[in-house]
Structure formats: structure tokens, C-alpha cells
Design brief:
Blueprint: H1 2-8, H2 12-21, H3 34-43, H4 53-58, E1 70-71, E2 75-80, H5 86-96, E3 112-116, E4 122-126, H6 131-139, E5 147-153, H7 160-171, E6 176-181, H8 190-199, E7 212-215, H9 224-238, E8 241-242, E9 249-258, E10 262-271, E11 274-275, E12 279-282, E13 285-288, E14 291-293, E15 299-300, E16 302-303, E17 307-312, E18 323-327, H10 330-346, H11 357-365, E19 371-378, H12 381-393, E20 400-408, H13 413-422, E21 424-429, H14 437-444, E22 448-451, H15 454-465
Parallel strand pairs: 2-4, 2-5, 5-6, 6-7, 19-20, 19-21, 21-22
Antiparallel strand pairs: 1-8, 3-4, 9-10, 9-18, 10-17, 11-16, 12-13, 12-18, 14-15, 14-17
The protein binds guanosine-5'-diphosphate.
Residues 80, 82-88, 129, 181-182, 184-185, 217-219 line the site of guanosine-5'-diphosphate.
Length: 473
């Protein structure tokens, strides 16, 4: 309903009214069937043309039955503050946990790799440390990570990026395992880190809480095996399953053009099994899989769930976060890829993807809004805390105000991506967007509101929540 209203530039309550006159009570988030849309559009003098209906239809996934599902390996992302040891940990795991009987570690950086532990269990790691990649994928609608390891240096403290990583994992609903790193150093004080976490309401197991944590040294390898055991334990609770006996689907991790071999794309198979010779559609690219390699540079013929492989054969470089699907015949994959390309070119009328404060006001007025997600950035801790308190007090029985991330500092690209992935509004207090943040916000249609008077910020939010915010000029 709301997309239709945006596309026709007709107020949403008029669209709702038109539906009502057809005998349908709808809310603005409701999906309409093709026939209703056609009739409603006609009312306002528009003609409906369904350009990609068949695309969605032809790639609709079939539900698996319980018997078809088998346990799959967890897919893990490593996040944390700069210099706390993310890369060192990923490197250590890559080099130490080679597949049983195989000499030599992983030689290639393909963006993801799988390891097999002594007990035979497997874990797939996304090899791009940091939450930027994680959240950029989520902003494109790809939820790949099952679990996050958050690295904190024991000779340092819980730092701004640590908090950011925690917020990003929590916003994605991904369980966290803490790796308290650098315990080989004299200055290391793991207890201090756990205390800081406890002060943030994050109680680790030693402190009587539920969150897994392990003291490690990514340099000497101390505790890393035990950390991975805890990751597997946590994964077990998630009961991760996939059907390996069907055509593969999954997500693109990275892609580049190799002068000699053409486009090389690393993909993570999430369900089904990908085979050499399959016709693949990935975002706006397509092609027949000519060859597949694992992270050791070995040719493989098939890749099942939770397996990362780099593939050759696509006619372009898909974007990280693009979904891929396998098709029976190449023509279909090709035609969808070219229609997607065409659609993207033609789509001058963009429907609103994320929420603006005005839009929230409108939805609340319609009684159709339950949660307001906010990201708060401020110049000093005092103002951030004051705003947090005031905003949280605005929560009512109908509308819950969630502060999904707050920190001192400028508004960064990573804040914008988090907002885009979580449908949040960014509130800046005496701070401005930095670097690419503004252009990314425009692209992702994220609403950034900047204030220098606390009272104004609170009033705007209150007005929006009462459904009467006047549109921003
Ligand atoms: P990243 O920015 O989080 O990826 O951090 P790096 O992995 O690049 O590590 C930053 C620095 O800390 C490097 O100089 C590492 O050698 C060092 N480092 C990482 N882990 C450990 C550790 O467990 N012990 C010690 N002593 N140094 C470490």
C-alpha cells in the first residue's frame, strides 16, 4: 500500500480509502494482489505494468520438509575495535586448523574460508574482519552470519568500535561470543574487560551470565581451540539446518576481475549443492559455473550448505550481498539478469526503502507503527546520555523507542548502513556526517536529523510519535 502511494505520489490514506471502497480494510504495510493494485491505480489514472512479477515467481523457493534438513556448519564473522586482533585471530585459525591430514594452510584469500576442527566439526568464517562488511551485506537484505566473535584486547578496554560491533550484532539478532585477546601480554586484565561488559548489561558466563566468552592469545594460539568449542556450542543452540539435495542458493561474498581468468566470485552456499556446470544467476550477473575452487586453491566439483567457494564463469562481478540461484536452463537465468539490469536503469521512480521521521509520523497517525529505532551520535558523553534518557522516556504503550546504537563521534558510513539495515533514524547532536556518510545516506535513503538543542530533538521525536510532525522543508 505504501509503495503504491509513493509511486503514484498520492497520499497513503487515499490509497487506503480506495481499497476500502473495494471492500478491503488494509493497513499501509499490507501487500496487495495484482488485481487490486491494477484497479486502485486506475482510480488515480495510472496503468499498472508488472515488470518483474515473473522474476519473483520464477525464483520463489520451495519449502523444505523436516526430513530433508540436515545440520550445517555455522557461518561466523569476526568483529571488534581496530588493533584488538581480528586479523590475527582469523589468520591463526586459517593457518592452524587445517583439514585433518592436509599439510599447509589456506593459501588464498577468497573472502571466506572453512575450517575443520579436530573433532570433525566445521565452521565457515567470513574473512573480512569488521562490522562494515557485515552490515553492508545486511543493508542489501542478506543475512549470512549465524554468529559473531567480538574480539576485545585485554590490555585495552571496551572501545567505541567494540560497542558498535556489539550493537550491529544485536541489531541483526546474531549471538555473540567474546574473545578476550592478548592475554599473553603483561598488561592484560581480562577481568577488567568482563567488568566493563557487565556494566553494559552484558554478563559473560564467568560473571553468572549467559554470554560465552574466552580468554585467548591470537599470537600464541592460547585458548583459540576452546574459543571455537564455545562457538560450536552456541551454534548447536541455533539448530542450524539446510537441505543439501536441491539446487543451490546462497550469497555473494566478494567478486573481482582477474586478468587471466575473468570474473572470480566468492559465494557462500547456504542451501542446496552447487555443482560445476550449473547455470547461476547472481544479482544482475549470470553464467555457467566453469570451475570452482576452495580456499586452498583446490578444484572442487560440488559445494554444499555453509561452504564458501570461488567460482568462474559469471559474465560480470556481482555485488557482495547479492543472492544467487541456480536455474535449469541458461536462457532463463540470462533473461532475468538482463531484465534486472534494465529495470535498474529504468527505475526512476524509487519507492521509499527506509523510513524518514515524516513517514514514521504518518504511519503512527494511522496506528500502524509499533517500534521506533534510533541511532544516536553526539559530541560528548553527557549529551548522548541525556538524549538516551529523554528518548527512552518517550516510549508509550503503543510505541516502543529502541536506541539500537549510541556513541560519541561523527556520523559514519557504518552508522548509515546500520540504520539502513535496521530501519532506523539517525539523530546527530552537535555532530555531522563524516566522509561518505552523507552520500551513502542519500543512496540508502536514510534519514539523518541533526540538532544542537536537546529540547528540539525531543520535541521533533515527540511530534513524530504523536503523528503530527510537519514535513521537513
Ligand atoms: P585488527 O585491527 O583487529 O585486525 O588487529 P590485528 O590482528 O592487526 O592486530 C593488531 C596488533 O596486535 C598486531 O600488531 C598484532 O600482532 C597484535 N596482536 C594481535 N593479537 C595479539 C595477541 O594475542 N598477543 C599479542 N601480544 N599481540 C597481538
Amino acid at each position: 500500500v505504501s509503495d503504491l502511494s509513493t509511486m503514484m505520489d498520492v497520499p497513503v490514506n487515499q490509497v487506503i480509502g480506495a481499497c476500502m471502497s473495494l471492500g478491503m480494510m488494509v493497513t499501509m504495510n499490507q501487500r496487495l494482489d495484482a488485481e487490486t493494485m491494477t484497479i486502485v491505480a486506475e482510480e488515480f489514472g495510472f496503468e499498472m505494468d508488472f515488470v518483474n512479477a515473473d522474476i519473483e515467481e520464477s525464483i520463489a523457493e520451495v519449502e523444505d520438509t523436516e526430513e530433508q534438513l540436515v545440520t550445517r556448519a555455522p557461518i561466523v564473522t569476526v568483529m571488534g575495535h581496530v588493533d584488538h586482533g581480528k586479523t590475527s585471530l582469523l589468520d591463526y585459525i586459517r593457518e592452524e586448523n587445517v583439514i585433518a591430514g592436509e599439510s599447509g594452510g589456506i593459501t588464498q584469500h577468497i573472502g571466506a574460508y572453512g575450517v575443520e576442527l579436530k573433532g570433525g566439526q566445521k565452521i565457515a568464517f567470513l574473512d573480512t574482519p569488521g562490522h562494515e562488511a557485515f552490515t553492508a551485506m545486511r543493508a542489501r537484505g542478506a543475512q549470512v552470519t549465524d554468529l559473531a566473535i567480538i574480539v576485545i584486547a585485554a590490555d585495552d578496554d571496551v572501545m567505541p568500535q567494540t560497542k558498535e560491533a556489539i550493537s550491529h550484532a544485536q541489531a541483526a539478532g546474531v549471538p555473540i561470543v567474546f574473545a578476550i585477546n592478548k592475554v599473553d601480554r603483561d598488561a592484560a586484565n581480562p577481568e577488567k574487560i568482563k567488568e566493563s561488559l557487565a556494566n553494559m548489561n552484558l554478563l559473560v558466563e564467568d560473571w553468572g551470565g549467559k554470554i560465552q566468552s574466552h580468554d585467548i592469545s591470537a599470537k600464541t594460539g592460547l585458548g583459540v581451540a576452546e574459543l571455537l568449542e564455545k562457538v560450536l556450542l552456541e551454534a548447536e543452540l541455533l539448530d542450524l539446518k539446510a537441505n543439501p539435495d536441491k539446487q543451490a542458493t546462497g550469497t555473494v561474498v566478494e567478486a573481482f576481475l582477474d586478468k587471466g581468468r575473468g570474473y572470480v566470485s566468492t559465494i557462500l552456499v547456504q542451501a542446496g549443492t552447487l555443482k560445476v556446470g550449473d547455470y547461476v544467476l547472481a544479482g544482475r550477473t549470470h553464467g555457467k559455473v566453469k570451475a570452482m575452487q576452495d580456499e586452498r586453491g583446490h578444484d572442487v566439483q560440488a559445494a554444499g550448505p555453509s561452504t564458501p567457494v570461488s567460482i568462474l564463469g559469471l559474465d560480470g562481478a556481482p555485488q557482495a550481498g547479492d543472492k544467487f540461484h541456480v536455474f535449469e536452463d541458461e536462457r532463463e537465468a540470462k533473461s532475468i539478469a538482463s531484465r534486472r539490469t534494465q529495470l535498474q536503469r529504468e527505475q526512476s521512480v524509487r519507492t521509499q526503502k527506509t523510513l524518514s521521521l515524516d513517514e514514521i509520523g504518518r504511519r503512527i497517525a494511522l496506528g500502524d507503527f509499533k517500534e521506533l529505532n534510533l541511532i544516536l551520535k553526539g559530541d560528548v558523553d553527557g549529551s548522548v546520555e541525556a538524549l538516551t534518557d529523554s528518548f527512552q522516556k518517550l516510549s508509550t504503550e503503543e510505541i516502543q523507542v529502541n536506541i539500537i546504537h549510541k556513541a560519541v563521534g561523527a556520523i559514519t558510513e557504518s552508522d548509515v548502513l546500520l540504520a539502513s539495515a535496521s530501519d532506523a533514524i539517525i539523530i546527530g547532536f552537535n555532530v555531522r556526517p563524516q566522509g561518505n556518510a552523507r552520500s551513502v545516506a542519500e543512496q540508502e535513503e536514510v534519514d539523518i536529523r541533526m540538532y544542537s538543542i536537546i529540547y528540539d530533538a525531543i520535541n521533533d521525536l515527540k511530534d513524530a510519535m504523536e503523528g503530527m510532525l510537519s514535513p521537513e522543508l
